[in-house]
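Input record, target 12 of the design panel.
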């Protein structure tokens, strides 16, 4: 059985009061492979920094092909790992020699994590060393990150609208005027049937409407990044030391008792 992770702020996630964030995958049970697709084993547990609330190491349950001095004490630094979400596996970067895998993934963290016994782990965060007693105090720190998401889109197109217009146009036309004048001379005339007639052509202007498309304006579409500030509200917890001095309490109690008895004696006089 592997040693407990107890020093400072490193804990196995299965033993700590934390859980994997909702937007992150729980990789426990995922297969661990090299970049050339050689099996190393599977993820047995996650080693969490409880102060920073980040995974620092992955505990490996090694495959039979892995040659390591202590098969229960293999830890992969999270910085050397890539997650293959589609195939649900963990990929160890770089070239790996399986015969020396124990030296590659097992630095001195096993000794650091196992530096405290199980008995000490059950005594809480207070530690005794001779006449000096120590108690740690923890508080939550907030780390705010950003990610780019699509907040919407702007669509630009065009359509045709029909608008009715009325224009006043000046036109010219011929108009026939018939004028009668009396004849003053006494010229003899003859009354007889006649087919004579006068034809006067009438000319007028006709309105001809023509339309042609003309470019009137253009629309230029671009985008720019605008920096703005948004408030982020989050509740954080922190531990506070409660210091109770029994000596002061006893002195205050004794002073009250002494004052009351003195008043009584003065009253008796």
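The sequence produced for target 12 reads:
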């Amino acid at each position: 059985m592997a040693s407990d992770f107890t020093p400072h702020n490193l804990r196995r996630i299965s033993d700590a009061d934390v859980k994997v964030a909702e937007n992150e995958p729980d990789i426990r049970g995922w297969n661990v492979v090299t970049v050339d697709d050689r099996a190393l084993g599977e993820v047995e547990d996650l080693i969490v920094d409880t102060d920073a609330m980040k995974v620092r190491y992955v505990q490996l349950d090694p495959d039979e092909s892995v040659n390591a001095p202590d098969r229960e004490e293999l830890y992969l630094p999270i910085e050397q790992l890539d997650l293959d979400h589609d195939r649900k596996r963990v990929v160890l970067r770089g070239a790996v020699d399986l015969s020396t895998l124990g030296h590659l993934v097992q630095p001195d963290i096993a000794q650091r994590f196992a530096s405290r016994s199980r008995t000490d782990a059950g005594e809480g965060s207070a530690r005794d060393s001779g006449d000096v007693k120590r108690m740690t105090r923890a508080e939550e720190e907030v780390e705010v990150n950003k990610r780019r998401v699509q907040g919407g889109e702007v669509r630009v197109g065009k359509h045709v609208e029909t608008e009715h217009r009325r224009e006043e146009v000046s036109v010219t036309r011929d108009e026939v005027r018939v004028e009668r004048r009396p004849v003053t001379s006494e010229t003899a005339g003859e009354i007889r049937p006649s087919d004579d007639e006068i034809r006067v052509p009438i000319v007028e202007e006709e309105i001809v409407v023509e339309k042609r498309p003309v470019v009137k304006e253009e629309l230029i579409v671009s985008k720019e990044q605008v920096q703005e500030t948004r408030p982020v509200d989050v509740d954080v917890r922190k531990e506070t030391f409660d210091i109770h001095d029994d000596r002061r309490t006893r002195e205050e109690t004794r002073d009250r008792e002494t004052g009351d008895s003195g008043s009584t004696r003065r009253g008796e006089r």
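The domain at 10-135 is CATH 3.90.50.10 (Photosynthetic Reaction Center; Chain H, domain 2).
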